[in-house]
Design a protein that fits this description.
This protein is α/β, with parallel strands linked by helices. It is built from 34 helices and 29 strands.
Length: 881
Amino acid sequence: MLGLKFNGTWRNYQRQVLDNFQEYQADGHVHLVAAPGSGKTTIGIELIARFDKPALVLVPTVTIREQWVDRIRQAFLEDEDQIKGLVSQNLKDMKQITIATYQAFHSAMQQVQSQEENGETVDFGGFDLLAKLKEKEVETLCLDECHHLRNEWWKSLEDFRKNYQQLQVISLTATPPYDSEPELWDRYLQMCGEIDQEITVPELVKEDTLCPHQDFVYICFPTKEEDKRLEEFEETKWQYVSQLVVDPDFQTLIRSSKVLKGEISADMLLEDPKYLSALLIYLQAQKLEIPKHLQDLLGAEGLPALNYYWLEVLLQGLLYQTPDWYENPQETKKKIEAELKSRGLIEKRQVFLVKSKANDQILNQSLGKLSGIADIFATEYASLGKDLRQLVLADYIRKDFANYLGDDQAPITQLGVLPYFEIIRRSAQKQGLSVPIAVLSGSVVIIPASVKAELEALIPNTSLTFSAIGKLDQGTYLQVGFPSSFKGMVAAVTELFQRGSIQVLVGTKSLLGEGWDAPCVNSLILGSFVGSFMLSNQMRGRAIRIWPGHPDKTSNIWHLVAIKPYKKPAFSKEDQEEQDLNPYQDLQTLARRMDHFLGLSYKEDTIETGLDRLDFPKAPFKKSKIKAYNQKIKELSKDHSSLRKKWQEALVVVDKLEIVNEVATDRKQIPLLTLVDAEKWLRYSFLLIAVNLLLYLFKTNGIRLAWLTTISLVLLTIALVRYFFYKSPYVRLRQVGEGIRNAMLKTGHLSDDQSRVQVEEDKDSYCVFAYLKGGSMRDKELFSQTLGEFFAPVDNQRYLLVAKKAPAGQSKYFVVPSLFEKRKEEAQHFQNAVAPHLGDYQLVYTRNEAGRKVLLEARLKSLANKNDRLITKKKVKSALK
């Protein structure tokens, strides 16, 4: 019916999907997870062809919509002119295959006007989408990246499925929501079906479908002006805060608290104990008396030191969260609020002392990143020379900067396409390099004058205009004008880039970040400051495709992060760690991004996720340390031959890949019960031997005691074996892990009962890593999340495990993970599963008065513990071990 026939050659992993097609589609769904560059669009079209029924394809953006059309035209039709009669991009004019964005679909379901990101509009007023689909007898629905939807789009999709059920569903995604809540995961599976096959980046590198690649993080300093603003902000904040905490009026206000007078019930105090904690921490810091009834309520000794975090909590409660706890005059409160607002420390009724949105924005959009981009360009050109094909992606064009292009003295005050073009042009000019640089966006195209004739030859029947832009010499660079209806400019400039007539291409992420293909890219600079993992993953995919005819291609992917160098913390040395982490959004966004990217470790031949694999410097971030790190990665980026070799060595031991989710914890946090028990039996054995020896000394006939000697030696042997067995933290962690795995299996949270827990050591961090071997990726994600929560510091969990008497050196508190906290029966099931490895711990419900007292005590003790940060990462293992 559809007449689609693939005219290429299937790769091995694609063939595997197609060979299993009948099995996969038995439940009415085919669900494929595949990394960017795997050809999942091509597989999706082939699956539509095999269903051979009219199809509706839903995609995230107009760019991807057009990519689908182009792929059908180029790879599945003998005559490309057939596309007009076969494929439509308009829901109101459906054909055998209709491809639309989720935005258009949602608007059609709601019968309102749709507006796409490119300005395209369609009025769906009075349009009956369901009737149109039935008229066209649509029986196949293909969902491309459907979980990355706005909530209202998702609801429209669910309503559609309820009212139009005669569908076979194909779901394609690069990033399934493995780490979502169980309810959201179930909702996702209900729409898309169980995952049938997953194709990962390491598999694609092993198959030579993607090239060896490496991520590099270039750390930028804020400019002098930005640093001055940051310093002024910190200084202003410190001056005010240091005066406020000792201000008599403020102390009087705090002393007026109804909490201190016993007028707030314990039940209310413990409803959200952080406000009570902040109040008491302040009293302690100012050496003010803490009432006995509050000391009794706490049941804990040793409050943490006052820092910005606790003062922020105190002020948030005082001004907004619990203002009725304080009796004193509104004048003092209003004065404090006004002072905080004037210093930028309150935004939308939220106090910000630990971090500031204004400071976040300064670093996120720091102009220091311009010098970083220039340095990266110079490094890559010095390494690759004429072979360099560098792509630089930005969020915005910044057309207002066009007049300053070519003016070497003009200040650059924004990040964007034109500023990036200019800083690279200046860098090349300064070094005397003749490097062809171009700009490609939807509305601004700039090319080297040297490629003008070549561009005209590529699109001969198009009326192009060439003009000067800014102060750039027309003999060097030209702005290209073209009809707004012309769609071939991207393809033409891309071809010049492929040929090497252009070596550096600067463009917007919306045009070139997804759905655009240039296999020649061997250096990518992510100059975008939007942190979405899905978009970052798509942008990263531009650089890691193989380049036909260039089998030795490797690719460098550059990430930029601005960090304010170390400054001694304001409050105390105890707070140093928290302050030095530089709690700005730019670094946090980078860390989240890296948590999802599987790549080669700098330190060893392993493939894993996380910033640690890049040997990222630890806090405090001193200038010398940052400069040394940047120099180190620049040298690493030049070693392309070693990069290919390291990928081969990391993958050579793996015949069949498996991605696991590792959870690390400090050895000191691993339960000691089994070791303590083994030590007890060892002592009993030695005691029995001592008794035996005494009897030998006082008995003339030792033969009669042979039976006692035998028993003593047998018990000693067993005790020694148990002691040395349980002395290993790996054994104890594996036992705890197996207990948790069994609890998850019995409650139906794991899908594969053949999985098992494995444990490894990380000698550098003195941590022990546990992970689930076997099972689905969802099983692995859920297990790592559950194990991580078990060892996590106490916060506001619904259930805790509390020791009546904990073994020496073992924590008194453990957390019941969120997976088991919804019903008491499940929490008890979890308790029973881990009890043999913990000891005599009771289950405590923290939502009543008695439980909240325990919760507060546990929280305060957790706050004093600096070893509570958990490390989680994905890592490639052999599936055969």
